[in-house]
Amino acid sequence: MIKRRKTKVVKIGKVKIGGNFPVLVQSMTNTKTSNVKATVRQIKELEKAGCEIIRVGVPDLESAKSLDRIRKQIKIPLVADIHFSAELALESIARGVDKLRINPGNFPKSGLAEIAALCKRKRIPIRIGINSGSLEKDILGGHKKVTAEMMVKSAIRNIRLMEKLEFYDLIVSLKAPDVFRTIRAYEMLSKKVDYPLHLGVTEAGGEFSGTVKSAIALGFLLQRGIGDTIRVSLTGEPAKEVKAGWEILKCLGLRERGAKIVSCPTCARTSIDVIGLSKKIEKLTGEIKKPVNIAIMGCLVNGLGEGREADLAIVGSGQIVLIMKNGKIIRRVKRKDAFGAFEKELRTFL
Ligand code: SF4
Questions:
Q1: Do 215 and 316 share a domain, yes or no?
Q2: What is the dihedral of CA 214, 216, 217, 218, to 10 degrees?
């Protein structure tokens, strides 16, 4: 069992992070925020996929002015992602966002006092989002490569700045596009402050490589108890980020949601279409919230063993297929009837 690092509790809209609260899955929209209809549609899709906090980019005033209409139509907390402009931050606060993310590498320090005062009054937390691609120039000091140490230096500097303004509702992230800098930066910062940490590998890549990279970095940190919210950044559909985030948390036993599937890789012994069945069952269970352990096994070598540990299992056994429920064989069906029989049992289980 993972022992979580004790962090300060921060409230974001209706949800709480840090302390003993669950590690939450975040994502970010890729619609134009000023297109309220498209943005709300995407957020609702992400909510359905399990997104628990949503961030939207606020590149202009029109986007900032759209935030109240977006927020009214969604259930999860809305985070405004602000770069370069105090004016956009102030407008986002006025429009009732649940949290601000500012990037200290490009945010005007002169606007911080007013923003901190307003956020404090309205109980809006702020994420100090350090990104290796936009670190403050004086910390970079002419070096080409940003180190984890530089990122931590920036984080500490900006945390202290906010603390001087008597603002403590902070969340911090230290994102780099590679595994080692990400891990090192979060590990170092977690020893220095107790603010909740939002984990992510920035610009992680496409669906496959980005998921693997994020799973290694985030998995390593979470396994050591570091991290209070996560985002898997993918060059792809945001819903896939949410799916990947949940999969990481489920693998580590930190959260439960929907299907946890064990399926064999298939081999010369395979007597059922494990690959086809896996795809169909994954689709079938994609939106289920109730936790259910499923095994899809090609033969009896490991099939009965995995079936015994699953809530529901489908196991090839020569010409027939075994359907198992709560560890026991409950039906023997023909191959062509296997999916239908499994689907029927799944419905009774949920
Ligand atoms: Fe092969 Fe059977 Fe193992 Fe599947 S469970 S990989 S079919 S031996």
A1: no
A2: 70
User: 167-187 pLDDT, tens per residue?
Assistant: 999 999 999 999 999 999 999
Residue 113 lies in a domain: yes
Domain final residue pick, 229, 251, 273: 251
Average pLDDT in the chain: 96
**Whether residue 272 sits in one domain with residue 233:** no
Task: Please identify every stretch of the chain with a pLDDT value under 50, giving residue numbers as ranges.
Answer: none
Cβ–ligand 1 contact at 297 (below 6 Å) = yes
Pull the structure tokens for residue 186: 């979060």
Q: Is the CB of 314 under 6 A from ligand 1?
A: no
Bridge partner list, 199: 230
Is the CB of 317 inside a 6 Å radius of any atom of ligand 1? no
DSSP letters, 188-211, are HHHHH--S-BEEEETT--BHHHHH
CA of 277 to the centre of ligand 1 (A): 14
Q: Confirm whether 156 is domain-assigned.
A: yes
Q: Is 307 in the pocket of ligand 1 (CB under 6 A)?
A: no
Residues 160 and 47 in one domain: yes
Residue 121's domain spans which residues? 10-251
If you measure from the C-alpha of residue 306 to the centroid of ligand 1, how many angstroms do you get, rounded to a whole number?
11
Which of 261, 262, 269 for mutating ligand 1's site (highest number of atoms within 8 Å of CB)?
Answer: 269
Gap between the Cα atoms of 49 and 22, Å rounded: 17
pTM metric for this prediction: 0.94
Q: Give the closest residue (by CA) to ligand 1 atom 1.
A: 267
Determine the residue of 261, 262, 264 to mutate for testing ligand 1's pocket, defined as the one with the most ligand atoms within 8 A of the Cβ atom. 264
Using the structure block, give the residue that is written with the tokens 């004790």.
6
Overall size of the chain counted in residues: 350
In 214-289 the beta strands, taken as DSSP E runs, fall at: 229-232, 259-263
Q: What angle do CA 125, 130, 133 make, to 5 degrees?
A: 145
Q: Is residue 55 within 8 Å of residue 79, measured between CB atoms? A: yes
Query: Is residue 149 included in any domain, yes or no?
Result: yes
